[in-house]
Amino acid sequence: MIHDDDNATRETTTTTTEAAVAPSSEVQTNGEPPRRRRGFAAMDPKLVSELASRGGKAAQRAGTAHRFNSEEARVAGRKGGQATGAKRRAKAAGSN
Question: Are 3 and 10 in contact (CB under 8 A)?
Answer without folding.
Answer: no
